Amino acid sequence: MSEAQSVPGTQQTAHDLTAFQHNILVILAEEPMYGLAIKRELESYYDTEVNHGRLYPNLDDLVERDLVAKSELDKRTNQYELTDDGYETVLGQLNWVFSKLITDEERAEDVGDLVAAHD
């Protein structure tokens, strides 16, 4: 079992998240962002418009679960940042995906090549 999977409560939380929420966590793994920047990243990924009514309730849910921290940049703009639990949730999800994907040495090399390309 990886360190990410051993964090109390993190795995259970990860199972309760939607794919959309997982994608928000992945986006925030890169750097803290304000809501509209997150929205643009999601729209680029989905290649379609993401409504505020979908984004902000999901961000609020992630904040309530302590996976994302919310802070005020100015009177009108909030910044969102991945918490340690959020980071562990992303790692746990990756670990689960890799456990399903890597079934032989050739696939392990393919994944290793992907990781090396991003170093």
Automatic annotation (TrEMBL):
InterPro entries: Tscrpt_reg_PadR_N, WH-like_DNA-bd_sf, WH_DNA-bd_sf. Residues 24-88 form the Transcription regulator PadR N-terminal domain. Gene3D superfamilies: Winged helix-like DNA-binding domain superfamily/Winged helix DNA-binding domain. It comes from the Archaea. This is PadR family transcriptional regulator. The lineage of its organism: Archaea, Methanobacteriati, Methanobacteriota, Stenosarchaea group, Halobacteria.
